[in-house]
Specification:
It is built from 15 helices and 29 strands.
Length: 559
């Protein structure tokens, strides 16, 4: 039996070794100091599928097999021999196990609980690098092969299907997808679970729970995304929003010993997480996708002990007394000694009849690999003139026959990086139309036709185009604050020197000192990233603000 064999026949040796490295005796001894050795019996189940917060094992004698159970038969995923170890990204995230791990002969293992594993990762640089890299590569392989505990049955003509696929993908959760229009065996599966076609999309969760058109909240509950998080525990800092600024605050806060909880309404990454490629972010000369950047940042935050609650956005900040309380649903609030507001912005929706009808079925607010597959070989429209719109246009131009870029202003220079402008101007696929706006959407179950208007000539042109990407302006996500902090005329949070004496007086600022640089009109509450008034709308700036805010959090907690 091969030791620590990969999911599929070996590709390159380097990839196999990264996914399934073999620990040496010296490394095993250091890990053993944090846990306990114990014998295992032939056939003993070490980790059950769906087990909350599963332990971590290093095999020192014998072999263990990792399988994905299903009613159609178990799928062998890996075999760990001496020096091999269990686990993948869920081990860091504190989520339920996707697989079953079972001894295939008598042997011995070293067992570590979740907290003990984090202690190793945080204190042993060499072992941390080995484990983190293996966990991440294993999760990537699981996603690529669709080896998880979720089956999604839907249709690419369904907006709800697109929403669920995006939620699972951006949360990095492996799933298998069956398309009602393409997969011949779908009906048998629907009959087996007594599901009517009209009820799709359907999520089969952990092999038995059947969710009909579930909300993101319901999916997170079924998969146990937040099971390990204690909501009533008083945190040093509560970060609201897991975009670049919020994740940066989580990484720096947790790495400096603060008790950090992050609330995220959908998935880590924020608006930047939907960017196809960010090429002007320091340290990534060939560019990095927003999804990849968010995934790496999330792993860093978890490595240092921060907790991330997904599909749970803030609905209210209770600011009348300390500790502050942030409401996450009708019955639950989370207390915190300080708060970092990192809720970002949403794209402004143009006033067009039928817009909501085609959201997810022809109208999109992000351009990732998932959306690009839908419109390969077709004409598409990108509405907007900022960096996000430019990145989307270049990304879609790789597979679309034509990208029509509609900009209301007279050009791109006001709001777009020069390198993107040059590429757009040089692209034979991109058709830039200035002083032009979308005026009409029409179709059946999916968008079929559009009209746009040239505001200089007044000419209206109809086009048979089925895919529109809207990236127009930004509206701050500040409704949940409900008067707790001062906002500017556009609804962005005012901080530090931007706060006037009159605003501080109206807010009854109680301290002799003025607000710190990123502090709001409420002591100990900070705003970072796009949600902050006068912020620089760049990923690097957002990351910087998130880290800077933590330095001020330390000062507040010491007051």
């Amino acid at each position: 039996m091969a030791e620590s064999s990969p999911l599929t026949p070996p590709g390159s040796p380097s990839r196999r070794e990264l996914m399934f490295p073999i620990l040496d005796a010296r490394q095993i001894a250091r890990i053993a100091a944090h846990g306990s050795r114990r014998p295992v019996r032939d056939g003993e189940v070490l980790i059950r599928e769906g087990q909350p917060n599963p332990p971590f094992f290093v095999v020192t004698a014998g072999h263990c097999v990792v399988v994905r159970p299903s009613d159609l038969g178990d799928t062998q995923v890996a075999v760990h021999g001496p020096g091999g170890f269990t686990g993948e990204a869920n081990m860091l995230l504190g989520r339920r196990s996707l697989m079953r791990t079972q001894a295939t002969e008598p042997g011995e293992v070293i067992e570590l609980a979740h907290d003990q594993l984090l202690s190793v990762i945080q204190t042993d640089t060499e072992i941390s690098e080995i484990l983190m890299r293996a966990f991440i590569f294993r999760r990537v392989e699981l996603i690529a092969k669709g080896l998880g505990d979720v089956v999604l049955i839907g249709s690419m003509h369904s907006a709800a299907t697109m929403r669920i696929k995006e939620f699972l993908t951006r949360n990095g959760h492996p799933f298998a997808y069956l398309d009602l229009d393409r997969d011949p065996d779908v009906q048998q599966l629907l009959d087996r679970f007594h599901v009517a076609v009209a009820e799709i999309p359907v999520l089969i969760c952990r092999g038995d729970a059947v969710l009909r058109n579930p909300s993101n909240h319901a999916i997170a509950d079924c998969l146990g995304f937040n099971d390990a998080i204690e909501r009533t525990h008083l945190r040093d800092v509560l970060v609201v929003g897991a975009g670049p600024s919020g994740l940066a605050a989580a990484v720096y806060g947790a790495s400096e010993g603060l008790d950090v909880l992050v609330l995220e309404s959908t998935a880590p990454g924020g608006q930047a997480g939907s960017s196809s490629r960010i090429e002007n972010y320091l340290g990534f000369p060939t560019g990095v996708s927003g999804e990849e950047l968010a995934s790496r940042a999330l792993s860093q935050a978890k490595k240092f002990g921060a907790e991330i609650m997904v599909a749970r956005g803030a609905t209210e900040l209770a600011c009348a007394r300390k500790p502050y309380q942030v409401r996450v649903d009708e019955s639950a609030t989370v207390p915190a000694r300080s708060v970092v507001i990192a809720t970002g912005v949403e794209y402004r929706k143009p006033v067009i009849d039928n817009l909501s009808r085609f959201e997810g079925t022809g109208v999109y607010y992000s351009a990732t690999h998932m959306e690009r597959q839908l419109c390969a070989g077709e004409e598409v429209i990108v509405v907007g003139g900022g960096n996000s719109a430019g990145q989307a246009a270049m990304f879609l131009a790789e597979s679309a026959v034509r990208v029509h870029m509609l900009v209301r202003s007279g050009g791109l220079a006001e709001s777009m990086s020069r390198y993107l402008i040059r590429r757009i101007e040089d692209s034979p696929v991109i058709d830039l139309r200035t002083r032009t706006e979308l005026t009409m959407l029409d179709g059946g179950d999916h968008l079929e036709r559009v009209c746009w208007k040239n505001n200089e000539t007044g000419e209206v042109e109809p086009h048979a185009i089925r895919h529109v990407f809207l990236m127009t302006g930004a509206v701050p996500n500040t409704v949940w604050l409900r008067g707790c902090v001062a906002l500017d005329a556009n609804g962005f949070v005012k901080t530090g020197p931007d706060l006037t004496a009159a605003e501080l007086s109206a807010a009854a600022w109680p301290l002799a000192r003025p607000p710190y640089l990123l502090e709001t009109s409420l002591p100990g509450v900070f705003a970072v990233g796009d949600v902050r008034g006068n912020s620089v709308k760049r990923v690097a700036s957002a990351v910087g603000e998130g880290s800077i805010a933590i330095s001020f959090v330390h000062r507040v907690l010491a007051e």
